[in-house]
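Dear V.,

Thank you for sending over the compound details. I've combined the ligand you provided, flavin-adenine dinucleotide, with the protein sequence from our construct and run the structure prediction for the complex. I'm sharing the raw inputs here so there's no ambiguity about protonation or stereochemistry in the SMILES, which I know was a concern on your side last time.
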Amino acid sequence: MQQIGRGLLKQSLAAEPTAVSPEWWTQQAGEWATHDDDLKVRLFRLVDCMPMLDDPTTLGRHLREYIDDDVIRRLPPSLRLAIQAARSGLLAPLAARAIRAAVLAQARRFIAGSNPAEASRAALAQRRRHRGFTLDLLGEAVASESEADAYADAYTRLLTELPRLAAAWPADPLVDDGPDGPMPRVNVSLKLSALDCQFDAIDPLGTSHRVLARLRPLWRLARAHAAQVHIDMESHATKDLTLAIFRQIAMEEEFRDWPHCGVVVQCYLRESLRDLESLAAWARDRGTPVWVRLVKGAYWDFETVHAEAAGWPVPVWQQKWQTDACYEAATTFVMEHATTLRPALGSHNLRSLAHGMAVAEHLDVDRRGIEMQMLHGMGDPEKEAVTAAGWRLRIYMPYGELVPGMAYLVRRLLENSSNDSFLRAGFVKHVPPAALLAAPGPAASVHAAAEDAAAEDAAAEDTAVAAGPLAATGFHNEPLADFSVDASRRCMQEAVERLAARFAAGPVAIPRVIDGQRVESGETFSRHDPSDHDRVIAHVAAATPADALRAVKVALQALPAWQGLGWEWRADILEKAAGIMRRRRFELAAIEVFEVGKPWREADADVAEAIDFCCYYAHEARRLGQPARVDLPGEENTTEWLPRGVAVVIAPWNFPLAILAGMTTAALVTGNTVVMKPAEQSSLTGLRLHELLLEAGVPPAALAFLPGRGEEVGPTLVSHPDAAVVAFTGSRAVGMAIHAQAATASAAAGSRQVKRVIAEMGGKNAIIVDDDADLDEAVVAVVQSAFGFQGQKCSACSRVVVLDRVHDAFVRRLSEAVKSLRVGPAAEPGTRVGPLVDAEALDRVRSFIDVGRRTAREVAAVDVGPLAGRGWFVGPHLFTDVDPAGTLGQEEIFGPVLAVFRVSDFRQAIELVNGTPYGLTAGVFSRSPSHLHEAAAALQAGNVYLNRGITGALVRRQPFGGYRMSGSGSKAGGPEYLQQFLVARTVTENTLRRGFAPPRRAE
Ligand SMILES: Cc1cc2nc3c(=O)[nH]c(=O)nc-3n(C[C@H](O)[C@H](O)[C@H](O)COP(=O)(O)OP(=O)(O)OC[C@H]3O[C@@H](n4cnc5c(N)ncnc54)[C@H](O)[C@@H]3O)c2cc1C
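Below is the predicted structure of the protein with flavin-adenine dinucleotide bound, written out as structure tokens.
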């Protein structure tokens, strides 16, 4: 291995200085960037948005914003001059254009052309150097069916035209001779996520079905035209699904004996060896070998950050040497199984490749059945060395448009500028061969680590700072279920099936429960599954005003005992409740699926949020339970928080567990007793919450459960002289009515308190799409924010405000994405848009759609077909040319209806967003730091989101709640929320007696 490695290294180094990154951008800029994290972030972000900056003014502005005076001082002189010229003076437009051209040229270095003709010319050039190629059309996750079609069509053209040309190319034994005859001359790599716009591991069956419908014709074509197809590997979340689809198609009768297909295994994944073992067993069974390209993996930063943010186990190795060691173990494994898994080693690490070559020689594997693979535009001297050593080398050649190419470029830049990169260590830092070729182990990473020890120390400090406050609070958000994991899907599916069977046996009887006594008599109403009218879920015993009076009375009597239990005791009860929810999370989520039509992921998130509320408020209660003291010599002051009394909780159906649990537990943990009124549409979820809170230890008298119609019991509860707090979440109309009722009752003769009303109301939330925005991300986020849970969230996006320059392109992509949304029953995992909550909601949303059709232009409308007869379904609708002051521009719709507005500049966009009485959520997609800054300062909303969707606030991380007509309380899930249920009382004692004061108390 050492001998082979030194040979390769010697030859590669001899080819310098055209080494790895001859151009200044990757080498020079990358070099400065590695020593300066802030600079790295700025440069990469600037590079990322470059293709969008096609006019000198915007370009100049971005250059000034990213490369400000502080950064200029940190740049080396040559670059400083160029950038200064571009930022100001007469030559600014010229210099700015030159910089843009340089960046785009750099991107093109990694890209083999913008169209198939250029790509095939580049491919032929590789063959002339005795190398093979695999062509990859740039583009990743697609947002619509038409984009997926376009991707498949491009491969169809490639696989139709290129093999014809290739047949005339002169033979090259090193490239063309395979283990069982000639290798296909044309080789393509493709990404499965680009073949289906709803590519999602939550629904393996549906996704496979749709992907295979586009993949099969491509495989057929490849087979017929003697080409090879390789499936790339993307994020860990889609890895199992990608492998499953690969296996499925490769096992199909028409392809089972076809050896010219392959898949990727990423060795930075901890589970890669296990995957290889199962691939080997499968391939043995198949009877025909497949190619396995071993890579380390291109998404290390993403996988790490994403998993950490989600609270999931990080799937990638955290030490570079572990990835290298895993790569070598995987190499040995494929070499040992080379007759079933044809080894393709994709790496620029000469240690990794030399190790593979040595193992191959040691095991005497036929070289024609092995190949080395490298990327276009990277490590060219290494390529010469590998070919000269007599190994087949295949070059991975992406081609296509620059905009999708930027994601690829940024991955390459990240790789090239990484402290751990072999290329950087070998060709830029000139680490000695012995260290470069050392076996992977903790010591081997020293070569990279030592020189940057200071940088790493600083990074470690950053991490400590980031983790600090989180760790200090002892609160962590409950991780959402990871539905790319088979076990999570199975648990949810089983819960859904169990519940469907339960409902088949008859509806659940929902009693009202006061003082622990269940009452089922009196008027009842039925609740139906919104996805299927025929399924009756529950018979609800509607509460009456008399029940309301009794419930408040019992709650009032229960106050002293509940308050007497103390903060710690009550906080423990909340944590027990969280534990019960955690154990029953899939069951609770399944109830939401049937009761309110929440798709799986949304239902699971609601349960997780309910758990968060319990844990966070328990934590906050322990903080507030400590009286605050300010003691001076001779004076002691103690401020403590006391419960207000009886709290009435009136909750909505759209987050049936989380909001009800949040308001109820906040009231309880602060020592109030509670009359809980769930929405009539979600009484079963409410009942389950009531049961589990009692199971956790809330005394029955302290928590009444009053399902029923709001208009019947609501006014009685709100106006009751003993109701001290009203916590409400719901519509603006009801919220304002509650404010009025509470005010009137508070002012009435004989009243002994001013009621505290906490009301979270609606929104008319908007997202701005700036003219430099990443449209790929903006389309996905707008769709998710507008149509997640059918737009029935108070945080949902119902307006998109788009800058003129990108308006048409954005609307085109958005409308295709909307048309591609899958509407279906909530119980099916692949459903993106489920039903509306009830017939009334359906009528209301339809009437808004009618208004839209009369007053605006409908650019997308999804027809729900036969679903309309089955449930309360309405398809997503998109309107343009909407009057900002009209109905669609002003009124909360609470359904899948989205209005698009065109504006000429950013300031106008902000004015338009702020031009409603609401102020709940707002967002902006922009890559201009000054615009992001402006939006953060000027958007009038309680929750402002930059470059992400505007729904899905997490407890503590994004305390949630609006102002203006969106709400009158402080933010749920935030540090001031509990105080609203409390009154503060301060006791001051003069401790001075005849000039003598006791010593000060320890604080
Ligand atoms: C032909 C070809 C095809 C490819 N196809 C794919 C593909 O389908 N999917 C894909 O994901 N990638 C693919 N890649 C990209 C590939 O993953 C990266 O180029 C590769 O990881 C770089 O590894 P290396 O051995 O060349 O370099 P090295 O410098 O030896 O290794 C760098 C790699 O180490 C890993 N690493 C870095 N820091 C750490 C750390 N702290 N802890 C653990 N690991 C760390 C990262 O994965 C990084 O990429 C392909 C590459 C080639 C050459």
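A first observation: The first helix runs from residue 2 to 14.

Warm regards,
I. M.
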